[in-house]
Amino acid sequence: MRFLSSPSRSLSFSLSFFFSLCRSPSFSHSLRMMGISKNGSRVLCFVIDTTGSMSDDIAAVRETTSFIIDSKRGTPDEPSVYILVPFNDPDFGPLMRTTDPNIFKAQINALNADGGGDFPEMSLSGLQLALTGAPPSSEIFLFTDAPAKDLNLMGTVIALIERTKSVVTFFLTGSLGLRRRRGSDQGQGQVQHSRMAVSDSQLYRELAQSSGGQAIQVTKTELPKATSIIVESSSSSLVTILQAVRSTGRADNFSFTVDESVRNLTAYVTGSSLSFTLTSPSGVSQSSGEVNGSLATIKTVGNFLTLGLDSQAGLWEIRVSSTVPYSLKVVGQSAIDFLFDFVEVSQGPHPAFAVLESRPQAGGNATLLVSVTGSDSVSLTEVALVEASGSGEVNGTLESVGGGDFLVTMDRIPAGEFVVRLRGENSATTRALPDSFQRQSSTRLRASTVMVMAEAESDLEPGTPFSVLFTVTTNGTGGSFTIRATNDRGFPSSSPTDLTLVTGVSANGTVTLTAPANTASGTDVTLTIEAESPGATDTNYAVLRLTVVSPVTDVSRPVCDVVSVTANCSDDCSLSVWELSANLTDGNGTGIEHVTLRQGNGTLNTTTVKGAGNWTVILAAYSASCCSPEVELVAVDGAGNVGTCFRSIRVTVDTTVQPPVTNATTKNSITVTTAKVATAAATTTTTAAAATAATAAAAASSSHPLSLYSYLCFIMLVSVTLVLSL
After folding, report:
1. Between 351 and 242, where is the model more confident?
2. What is the model's pTM?
3. What main location does UniProt list (predicted)?
4. How does DSSP assign 112-181, residue by residue?
């Protein structure tokens, strides 16, 4: 639940801790593992078929991976996280995730094309893992030459695509030509005359279109040329300007507005037997037959066309003529983008909204929360729901709620699939008039007459059955609704296979999920519950992310005992060092996981030994320049309990009693003092911290618009401040 407004409260609070936390390497690393970085760089995620016929495909992935890593290392386009999910039959996974490009290279190089058995593979299971393991709005690339064996996951995958807004592009090398299966004991392999049928590749096309991706059909020899889209999609600040799909071949006109902030403008066309004419804002035209024209450079691989466009600001037009289905997508790099969610608004003294975790309801109005990102000089003029396969659209009524956020009310929702399109103006322009811009969502959405609601009130405990209650309602035709419950970890589960619904009357069900007893605490699992109407004409879902948590029996903090401090510092602190040794133990608890420095610029070395009572003791040895006179050790045990010890060698001055000289021959010896951390003495307090934080962030963003990284830091700061003020 998010509040639109809240009363200001006074709170004494130190902001320095949170600002330092946002700057800390550990916080930065955590955000990178979530796919969030200071420069807005993207996630590189591959889902790869590793059966015997995929040697050429894996080689192409290796080459592309090496190029991206080597060419983008240290640049704003360097991926923030690398993710790999292998699959074959009957296995899939595990998901491998790292921020280290060298580790990712090694993982790719270790892939071995072997086995596979029968023809279909577990491609949707691998994709499910990627969708739940990758950050939202990721670009995912799946490589296969075989149809999907796990067709029962189709609805689950679509639900996860809609919830995560991730884009999935498929490289299909089995639909053109023959498929060669290489067994581990067959050097030459066997040519199989069966190939991916049209219906098999159609499933991949539907998933690609739902997510805003491509279904690229090429031969294995053409694949290295087609992977250029991976390099382009891994660029930072990639935005979608136009996305359209036509399921039947016909002539159609598409127009799109390009603003001055856009660079590296590119159009992708997927389809065969088509022609097009491109017209620039200045009125210059180029036909699809001109490979190197004045407006675009056109590259064709298989059924996939890439148009490298001149990034000319203004209104562009492309006229497409085709006898078969096709898709069109126009992208570019720009700081200006938007986020959106369908929400439910609750009225009252403090109006708030809750994000819908399923499809919006058909037959009525709807509300979106739209957040414009990347610039404080833009104004929003239009938000519309546009039919994905047509030209119809529904315009919304805009209400600014501050901070670049807008509530958009729609009096109806399109009957079929739709996308969200945003238009506005940017006052930060070299033109005399404001610069018009256009952005569009990649993910295709749709409304539903079915409603699925589910909620988990606690966490899973390893080895213990866990119940999730859910409710299904329909405003459409009643009857027997098919129920499917799946989870991405493959945990044992049970649920009803169907529920009988009467229009307007709810029916309840229970999913029982059991995490194996050896499941590590902190493991997350994504549960998707689907309800499908009779005849499969309508469906909706609920997606829950649950966490496995072992019961906590250790509530005691680690203990830190300082054994000795040696500090003989000269007048010039840079010429001397001081040393501290300490013993850290957790008694009969879960054991100390790690020891780190919270304060101090010196060197910390630790050694683990067995002490009295067979307890584990960590011997800590710290040394530092006398110019760094304070140290604080932090020990964290397996249950998350934290123990600290602090020492300072600062000289203390007593104005009433002169301390005795303990060593006449060393007049520069330092008196060692023990300090306890006290809020009043050790921190600078601030009143009305939430207001101060907001003011500071606003002042900073006036000249430097908040990046997503900075925005998260700010949200964390304000959220914790408000929680502590309650």
Report:
1. 242
2. 0.74
3. secreted
4. ------SS-B-HHHHHHHHHHHSPTT-EEEEEESS-BS-GGGHHHHHHHHHHH--EEEEEE-SSSS-EEE
